[in-house]
Amino acid sequence: MQNIQRRTLLKTGLAGAISGLLMPNHSKAATFDGYTESMGVLVDLSRCVGCRSCEAACNKEQGLPAPDKPFDDMSVMKELHHGQKRRPDESHYTVVNQYDVKGIDHPLFRKIQCNHCNEPACLTSCFVNAYTKTPEGAVIYNPDVCVGCRTCMVACPFNIPAFKYSSAFSPRIMKCIFCYDTRLKAGKPPACVEACPNEVMIFGKRADLIKLGWERIKTNPGKYVNHLYGEKEAGGTAWMYLSGVPFEEYGFNTHLPKEPILNYVKDFLAAVPMVLTIWPALFTGFHLLATRKDKAKEEKNGGE
Ligand code: SF4
Ligand code: SF4
Ligand code: SF4
User: Fold this and answer.
1) How far is CA 29 from the centre of its chain?
2) ∠ CA(85), CA(91), CA(93), 5° rounding?
3) Could you tell me if 110 and 251 are in contact, meaning their C-beta atoms sit under 8 angstroms apart?
4) Cα separation of 64 and 58, whole Å?
5) 275 part of a folded domain
6) Which domain holds residue 231?
7) Is residue 202 a part of any domain in this protein?
8) What percent of the chain is predicted at pLDDT more than 90?
9) What is the CA radius of gyration of the chain?
10) Is any atom of ligand 3 closer than 6 Å to the C-beta of 49?
11) In this structure, which residue's CA is closest to atom 2 in ligand 2?
12) pTM of the model
């Protein structure tokens, strides 16, 4: 099956991609209606007890380093960094944070990772085609073509892609890949989903999960707010959420448009005059960097 990367992105090389980025275009992304058989995860936030088993399982599955503070240290979930709650970074593809909500006598917890958008802004904003949306539903990333421009980090409406600062000469974006190679491709649930002792997350076809989510809302009056987060936000996401309190209380952005973010990113970039003047220079820099990377690789391989 053709993937969205091929279908959506400009195929005429970097120069073509840049002009596409600068030209507001509402037609490309708006025509994609998603992979109907793609998989997703339904997260019932009201069930999460903040045990961080999902975090530990992810680091193990993805071969990420052990955290500075162990996974059984629950204090980290309250931590703020520059006034913000923890977010995924190069050593953690997923983090669980604690939220203390007025009028509720116990803490609430939310697991954060890439939501695997139907029409990902990270993918559509990347001019070297480093991202792919697979028919199974994952948004994956190819470090070999990434030039480290970090446009995807700016474009993502959920603040997910992280930059691997420890490898300045080998740019690399780090983010949850839905356990694509090790599990999703074979139809298996992600490691974090499987590790959860409280059945917070359900893995299944996205279309079925939407039905299940609404069924839960309707058959449990008063238990959940009347909103399945991710069904529509930013064009829809593979990971979707049920909550017993307004989503703002968990720090969700509830002002996202229903349309894919790409349209807004392009409009924004096109509206910034700086882009028109500085971008060509940046582009040349990225291109040189990419060429240098290729050359270094060739030399390393003995010019094969
Ligand atoms: S949540 Fe962000 S990083 Fe993940 S697919 Fe969507 S735009 Fe990309
Ligand atoms: S889906 Fe896989 S990569 Fe993503 S947070 Fe879960 S365990 Fe980590
Ligand atoms: S494993 Fe389940 S209950 Fe524990 S923190 Fe993760 S989502 Fe919450």
Assistant:
1) 17
2) 70
3) yes
4) 8
5) no
6) 4-263
7) yes
8) 66
9) 20
10) yes
11) 179
12) 0.81
Residue 63 dihedral angles phi and psi, to the nearest 5°: 65, 35
- What is the distance between the alpha carbons of residues 152 and 26, in angstroms, rounded to a whole number? 19
Task: Find the angle CA(143)-CA(115)-CA(242) to the nearest 5 degrees.
Answer: 165
Q: What is the CATH number of the domain that holds 185?
A: 3.30.70.20
Question: Residue 282: is its pLDDT beyond 60?
Answer: no
Nearest residue CA, atom 1 of ligand 2? 178
* Number of compact structural domains in the chain: 1
The pair of three-digit structure tokens given for residue 272, joined into one six-digit string: 């910034």
Which of these ranges, 36-50, 165-179, 245-259, 282-296, has the smallest mean pLDDT? 282-296
CA-nearest residue for atom 7, ligand 2, is: 58
Task: Retrieve residue 109's tokens.
Answer: 């917890």
122 Cβ inside 6 Å of ligand 1: yes
Q: Report the C-alpha gap between 39 and 57 in whole angstroms.
A: 20
209-252 confidence digits (pLDDT tens): 999 999 999 999 999 999 999 999 999 999 999 999 999 999 99
Going along 179-273, which residue ranges are E strands? 201-205, 239-242
Q: Phi and psi (nearest 5°) for 173?
A: -90, 140
In the block, which residue shows the tokens 């958008």? 117
